[in-house]
């Protein structure tokens, strides 16, 4: 059985999803979960792209031990230097240098001749290899590049020190049989291909991301790049969970396996969905809510008689069962144990905060599931030093013939308390009008999404909002047993993050000035 390395790029290409913006703490939380999932390489970001990304990559590189950490860099000295500064403390420093090789990108975007591209690629890989023991080179838009030219580039960068060669289908243009031929061609025509790992990276513009990844693996790729839930630029990247499960279920066909801890898939998907505010569609393969649901009579009959009639993947395989090991009579020890099993590694103060929220919930809800605990954990692990406002109390008065009125108490970081009332045409609008008055800013609400965790009448509500103010867009999320409380918390979460971002930007400007 061939081993296929999983290179996860949720924190880099995944974060390029329009509207997704993860802070350092959220990125670290995802990285810790990717480590538990046993991905081989985590692409933690693009250090030269912003001070925030630089810091996230550095923090992740210093915290994760069981997966290799890498960062993206253009074929440019300053990007490579920045990646080195962020990654030098990691266990196995690894860089990902890229430059485009297709005629359209070279001519119009880079404004370079093919020879100049080879020269820049070789120069950059040599520079990178002086610092990093592992250098990955990507020929951006490889699938629309001239194949003999690709061979020339790849031979030259392997000579310069590249140890991994990645051939991305950057715009999701190629088809499975074509990518198969491309990998086969490269395998047979690059004289030194045995010195490097061959990698595939596919986008989903034509819905072929996973199919192309599997075809490339069949044709010789031993590394596959993907993201959790398939998030990413435009239509997204090939989805990690679909590739890992396809390799497992059809190992007879691919004769290859990943080392992914499949039982962690559902949990990883839920975490990424929550932190990125990107809902997982119900019919999404492997991790969607309906992936193991059987609706029609003939199917249910078949399942009752013999599960394999309609089930090729068991929910247990991917950790999709929800258990309720904790209840209102559970104590702190069992609770702490369970949270650490779920990957919680926060302070005692945050643990106490989650425990109080759990007890409140257990009083109201029949079953507290792992998904509920995950939601409470995510809700509580925001950096409290960056919290300007907190929702202390909320009362909403609503009647069919009456203007909804919200009365809200907010506590401020300094210990002060604000109380205000306001109205709106609906209950949520009344809350948001009141919060706008209290925070003294008019934030435009550009998105509002609500979902229940696990379903059922007593489910937790999770609200995601997007606020816009003076050119900045900010996501926020809130979890509560009540939808109105979750709505207020989501709004305040976005406001707090917006304020923290502005303070950070002002700090950066002062440093530069
Ligand atoms: C296929 C991919 O996913 S590639 C990764 C894409 N990810 C991102 O772009 C996310 C983060 N990006 C950013 O924050 C910014 O684009 C930055 C910081 C990287 C660069 O910002 P700016 O310096 O303002 O440049 P801008 O983004 O406008 O243009 C990109 C420049 O890089 C050049 N460039 C693009 N790719 C490469 C490359 N692989 N190697 C060298 N130069 C490159 C472009 O030709 C352009 O150069 P020019 O300024 O001489 O015309
Ligand atoms: C940077 C490269 C690998 C990329 O994301 C792409 O080409 O899609
Ligand atoms: Mg990409």
UniProtKB/TrEMBL annotation:
<dbReference type="Pfam" id="PF08502">
    <property type="entry name" value="LeuA_dimer"/>
</dbReference>
<comment type="function">
    <text>Catalyzes the condensation of the acetyl group of acetyl-CoA with 3-methyl-2-oxobutanoate (2-ketoisovalerate) to form 3-carboxy-3-hydroxy-4-methylpentanoate (2-isopropylmalate).</text>
</comment>
<dbReference type="Pfam" id="PF00682">
    <property type="entry name" value="HMGL-like"/>
</dbReference>
<comment type="similarity">
    <text>Belongs to the alpha-IPM synthase/homocitrate synthase family. LeuA type 1 subfamily.</text>
</comment>
<dbReference type="InterPro" id="IPR036230">
    <property type="entry name" value="LeuA_allosteric_dom_sf"/>
</dbReference>
<keyword id="KW-0963">Cytoplasm</keyword>
<feature type="region of interest" description="Regulatory domain">
    <location>
        <begin position="390"/>
        <end position="513"/>
    </location>
</feature>
<keyword id="KW-0479">Metal-binding</keyword>
<dbReference type="InterPro" id="IPR013709">
    <property type="entry name" value="2-isopropylmalate_synth_dimer"/>
</dbReference>
<dbReference type="InterPro" id="IPR054691">
    <property type="entry name" value="LeuA/HCS_post-cat"/>
</dbReference>
<dbReference type="InterPro" id="IPR000891">
    <property type="entry name" value="PYR_CT"/>
</dbReference>
<dbReference type="GO" id="GO:0003852">
    <property type="term" value="F:2-isopropylmalate synthase activity"/>
</dbReference>
<keyword id="KW-0028">Amino-acid biosynthesis</keyword>
<feature type="binding site">
    <location>
        <position position="237"/>
    </location>
    <ligand>
        <name>Mn(2+)</name>
    </ligand>
</feature>
<dbReference type="InterPro" id="IPR050073">
    <property type="entry name" value="2-IPM_HCS-like"/>
</dbReference>
<dbReference type="InterPro" id="IPR013785">
    <property type="entry name" value="Aldolase_TIM"/>
</dbReference>
<keyword id="KW-0808">Transferase</keyword>
<feature type="binding site">
    <location>
        <position position="203"/>
    </location>
    <ligand>
        <name>Mn(2+)</name>
    </ligand>
</feature>
<feature type="domain" description="Pyruvate carboxyltransferase">
    <location>
        <begin position="4"/>
        <end position="266"/>
    </location>
</feature>
<keyword id="KW-0432">Leucine biosynthesis</keyword>
<dbReference type="InterPro" id="IPR002034">
    <property type="entry name" value="AIPM/Hcit_synth_CS"/>
</dbReference>
<keyword id="KW-0464">Manganese</keyword>
<feature type="binding site">
    <location>
        <position position="13"/>
    </location>
    <ligand>
        <name>Mn(2+)</name>
    </ligand>
</feature>
<comment type="subunit">
    <text>Homodimer.</text>
</comment>
<dbReference type="InterPro" id="IPR005671">
    <property type="entry name" value="LeuA_bact_synth"/>
</dbReference>
<dbReference type="Pfam" id="PF22617">
    <property type="entry name" value="HCS_D2"/>
</dbReference>
<keyword id="KW-0100">Branched-chain amino acid biosynthesis</keyword>
<keyword id="KW-0012">Acyltransferase</keyword>
<protein>
    <recommendedName>
        <fullName>2-isopropylmalate synthase</fullName>
        <ecNumber>2.3.3.13</ecNumber>
    </recommendedName>
</protein>
<feature type="binding site">
    <location>
        <position position="201"/>
    </location>
    <ligand>
        <name>Mn(2+)</name>
    </ligand>
</feature>
<comment type="pathway">
    <text>Amino-acid biosynthesis; L-leucine biosynthesis; L-leucine from 3-methyl-2-oxobutanoate: step 1/4.</text>
</comment>
